[in-house]
Amino acid sequence: MIPTADSDGRINQILGITRDISERKRAEVQLRQSRDEVASAYAALREVTQELEQLSVTDPLTGAWNRRQGERVLASSLLEAHRYGTPMALLMLDIDHVKAVNDTYGHEAGDQLLIDITSRLAKNLRGMDSLARWGGEEFIIVTPHCDIAGARSLARKTCDLVADEPFDDVGRVTVSIGVAELWPDDDRDSWLGRVDHALYAAKSGGRNRFAAGASHPSARSAIPASGGTRTVA
């Protein structure tokens, strides 16, 4: 602003330059809106990405880890146990007579049974344990920092948890479980082979029970392959 004076030295006017900033204001508003839109779009994209990541590792029916993620968890847990020398056990679980359930009540009831059993199994696990649907009606439970005694206890509780309370629509259902501790010289295939053998022993023994594989040959007292079977009333 510049004041001007008359001949007597009195200010008679003030000269100034004004500028219309309405366009700038509109631009600032548009910029803020654009920033908000970008932030909103980024948040939506991040949410979708997280959902896709979750879908890529979970079984779409039961919500447990899928086979691929189960393999990853198995591999990383095995590596960690070997590295630090910590105990670990693996449970392989098979729902008994699922085909009969599907034939009698329909596949929709069979699917709901898988969902309900998964829910029961999850409630019985520690935070560090991992439950994965291995295929069909078969699941695995990876239990880090768990010795064979703890795994046998978990298997017994799991059998009871499933069998003791009937399921809606299909009634009483049971499971068979194989248990195998991790040996110092185990790799993935040898460990899975022993737990699969234990599961076969449980099913051959009459189902609705668990069977624990033998301890490592170097152990002072070995548990027989059929040891730890659940007594069925």
Automatic annotation (TrEMBL):
InterPro entries: Diguanylate_Cyclase, GGDEF_dom, Nucleotide_cyclase, PAS-assoc_C, PAS-like_dom_sf, Rev_trsase/Diguanyl_cyclase. One of its GO terms (molecular function) is diguanylate cyclase activity. Gene3D superfamilies: 3.30.70.270, PAS domain (3.30.450.20). Residues 1-33 form the PAC domain. Residues 86-215 form the GGDEF domain. It holds the Pfam family GGDEF. Residues 210-233 are annotated as: Disordered. This is Unannotated protein.
